[in-house]
Amino acid sequence: MREVTSFADYFVLCSGTNSRQIQAIADQIHSQLKQRDEYPSSMEGYGNAEWVLVDYGDYLIHIFAEKARTY
Fold this sequence. Notes:
alpha+beta
């Protein structure tokens, strides 16, 4: 994305089958990036877990439920 936009280098798009799995994906991404001293500046939608958006600055992570991704 570096050539297209200045606000993020990478977009990560993925899906989970239920809210617990979506939260687990978000938790694992957080755990792995924390090991690299990367911390999110914001996270939205974690409680509802239909569409979780996590902003790591250079990385924008979108984790969707199937219904939200279809929309």
